[in-house]
Design a protein that fits this description.
Blueprint (H helix, E strand, L loop, with lengths): L5 E5 L4 H7 L6 E5 L23 E5 L4 H11 L3 E4 L5 H8 L4 E8 L2 H5 L10 E6 L25 E3 L20 E6 L4 E3 L2 E2 L1 H7 L5
Parallel strand pairs: 1-2, 1-8, 2-3, 3-4, 4-5, 5-6, 6-7, 7-8
Antiparallel strand pairs: 9-10
Length: about 210
């Protein structure tokens, strides 16, 4: 069943759209604070609604850490997803403030994965996404079997082009016990930042 995995819907930008999403058992709501993203939440002047949401995740890409801390405090985030090349020291500074860290790693080939140095000390969760020039939201999927060739020691989110058509292939990942959550974005949208509620509803009827 789908409830064996945590569900994270990322890149939300609209309050009305969020109100429809929250009717479902979504575990994490992701908001992107990366200016180059078409899902940059601060492009919406009416973004104050995010402050009162529980289990929300702030997504950054190589942002100045003082700016990160300011945003986390202003909007009351307790989870952060770091989607760039943030160092272990950077992560630890946030962790010491009680922030839960989701550290993203980008994969296109098996060599990408083998060359990674996973930050097992500071990260609470890993997230594996397709390696694109846009840091996520590409709608593309890497070969999930690549994940079978490394020991994580951390629960991880799977990201990158997840859709109603390919989620039945999760059995390609041998170590399902460490597969903690599914990170949904572009394949569950009508347009960037506007989630497709009908597709989200179908997701919860999947037998995974």
């Amino acid at each position: 069943m789908i409830n064996r995995y945590r569900i994270k819907v990322c890149g939300i930008t609209d309050e009305n759209n969020f109100s429809k999403l929250k009717k479902y058992q979504i575990d994490y709501f992701g908001f992107i604070f990366y200016k180059k993203s078409p899902r940059y939440i601060l492009n919406n002047p009416d973004h104050a609604f995010i402050k009162n949401i529980k289990n929300k995740v702030a997504v950054f890409v190589d942002e100045n850490i003082d700016n990160v801390i300011s945003i986390l405090e202003k909007y009351d985030f307790s989870y952060v997803q770091l989607h760039g090349n943030e160092s272990s020291d950077y992560c630890m500074k946030l962790k010491k403030k009680g922030i839960k860290i989701i550290k993203s790693y980008l994969i296109r080939t098996q060599e990408d994965f083998h060359s990674m140095k996973l930050d097992k000390e500071s990260a609470d969760y890993f997230l594996f996404d397709y390696k694109s020039d846009k840091y996520g939201g590409s709608g593309k999927t890497f070969n999930w079997e690549i994940l079978n060739n490394k020991d994580f020691d951390k629960p991880f989110f799977l990201s990158g082009g997840l859709s109603l058509d390919n989620l039945n292939n999760l059995n390609m990942i041998n170590d399902n016990e460490m597969l903690y959550g599914l990170d949904l974005n572009s394949k569950f949208e009508k347009s960037p930042g506007l989630k497709d509620i009908e597709k989200i509803g179908k997701l919860f009827n999947l037998n995974l």
